[in-house]
Each structure stands twice: as structure tokens, then as C-alpha cells.
Amino acid sequence: MNRISQNIKKIIGLVVFLTSIYLFFYFKYNDTAFILVYHQIGDYKGGLKSLYVKKDTFNRQMNFLYNRGYKSITLSELRYRIENNLPLKKVFCITFDDGYKSLEDAYYILKKYNFKATAYLHIKAILNGVYSYPNMPPADMISLEKVKKMLDVFELGSHTINHPDLTKISYEEVLYEIKESKKFLEEMLNVKVNHFCYPFGKYFKNHKEILSKEGYLTATTLNAALIEKKNVDFFFLPRVEWKEWSYMSFDDFFKNFEFYIKIFLGL
Ligand SMILES: [Zn+2]
Predict the structure, then answer these.
(1) Where are the domains positioned within the chain?
(2) Separation of 99 CA from ligand 1 center, angstroms?
(3) How far, in Å, from the CA of 176 to the mean position of ligand 1?
(4) Which stretches of the chain drop beneath a pLDDT of 50?
(5) 165 C-alpha to center of ligand 1: Å?
(6) Nearest by Cα to 40 from 111, 114, 131
(7) 203 CA to middle of ligand 1, Å?
(8) Are 74 and 119 in contact (CB under 8 A)?
(9) In terms of C-beta density within 10 A (0-12 exposed, 13-18 middle, 19 or more buried), how is residue 249 classed?
(10) How far is the CA of 98 from the centre of ligand 1 (A)?
(11) How far is the CA of 157 from the centre of ligand 1 (A)?
(12) Which pLDDT belongs to residue 4?
């Protein structure tokens, strides 16, 4: 009898312990959101592994979020929700950098789950049809005609014209990249372009003033973190790189530890 009551005490202790941990994470992450960042959807073709997520993996990731009740929202809505102190529970954003041909594969997967995403276009590479970068195999880009047909899923953002490191060019050149890329996309595709993504995730703090003056609402970086309402800066939004498990280092995992906890607990 004594032994049974000791076991019951242990079980109660464990339940209290696990509940406290859950509540701790619940209050910490329940009102946070996250922005996912992808580059190419498809098999690894060489160069930086972090730039690829296989089609199957991408589908599994979207399926996981869908089954857990997450809903994708646009970056404009994210900003609106934060500014109006609306709940962020179970909402997230999806972003794609550069505008690779594989956007089309992502499109059909996103459509299946009724998810929306933002595609940041690197204009020069798209006009060339291919993006060549040192130590990377040349990558096929999506065409503007194809992009036009996918606007029911993708909102478009600027990723500059020439994809320069903005911290290494003059103020006039930065202004040109930010201003002309927006103008080009808006005129060519007849859409509003309100969002920007820093090439290579590189920026200076004063880029915020230029972006805001040119009419952008948000800009994303490659810094890893969740979106918290307090202290959010819409012009330096962090993003989560949800990599293939097999390509993930310890460092990658710990960098996004809060994200994995959040989605594992379904918060
Ligand atoms: Zn890029």
C-alpha cells in the first residue's frame, strides 16, 4: 500500500512538472509568430546546402504545420496584427528568396494547404533566366510570365535589381536598388510591392529610413528568431531557416531552438 501511494506521488509530481514546463512555454511562445525562409525547392545541386529543401521535405513541413492548425498570413497582415495588438497564435509567414524556377513546385504545394507566401525577386537574374554566383551551380530562375500566373498564392517583394551586398555599395546605389526594383515590379506585373528582403541578409541600420521613405512596409533579414510583439522592428524582421534534418548542424538547431519547441508543442 505504501509503495502504491509512493508511486502515485511520483506520477503526480511528474504531471505537475510537465504541466509547469508546458505552461512556461505556452506563455512564452503562444503570442509569437515566425517567418520561414526558403531558396530552392528541390534536390541538392551543389554549393551551399542551406539553399535547398527537397520537394518532399517542403511538403512534409507544410503538412505538419497545416495539421497542427497553423495558418499562413501575408507580411502585410503580420504588421497589421502586431500594430493592432491582435493575437499571433498559430500564424506564420512563408518567404522565398531570389525567385528560382522551383517556385512553381512550391506553388502547387502551398495551394494544396491554402497557404500564402511572399516571393522576393532578384530582378536581374530573373531577366537573365539564370542566377550565377561563385561556388554555386547556375540556377534556373522563374519567368515573369509564370510569376504572373501565381499571384493567387504569392505576394511579391523586392530583392533588389542586382543582388548586391548593400553594406558595400554607395548610398546612391542602395537607393537605386531599393527604389527601382519596386518600381520595375509594380509596372511590369501590375501589383503593389510593399516588402523587401536584404540580399545575403546584409544591411545597415539607416536602410530602414530609405525603405520606409520609398513606401515599403517590412524588410526581412537572415537573423534567426521568432517574431515577438514587443521590440519588433518591421524593417529588420528575423526568419527561420527550417532545413533538411540531414543538412542540419547543431548550430542550426540551437539557432532556431525556440521555433522547434513552439511547433513541437503546437503553440
Ligand atoms: Zn538572395
Answers:
(1) 31-265
(2) 9
(3) 17
(4) none
(5) 10
(6) 131
(7) 13
(8) no
(9) exposed
(10) 5
(11) 12
(12) 83
In CATH terms, the superfamily for domain 31-265 is Glycoside hydrolase/deacetylase (3.20.20.370)
Extended strands (E) in 115-249: 117-121, 130-131, 139-140, 154-158, 195-197, 218-220, 227-228
pLDDT value for 1: 62
| Interval 11-58: pLDDT, tens | 999 999 999 998 999 999 999 999 999 999 999 999 988 899 999 999
Residue with cell 533538411: 244
The alpha carbon of 163 and the centre of ligand 1 are apart by a number of angstroms equal to: 7
Q: Are 90 and 73 in contact (CB under 8 A)?
A: no
pLDDT tens-digit series, residues 80-106: 999 999 999 999 999 999 999 999 999
Torsion of CA 43, 46, 50, 53, to 10 degrees: -10
How many whole angstroms from 13 Cα to the centroid of ligand 1? Answer: 50
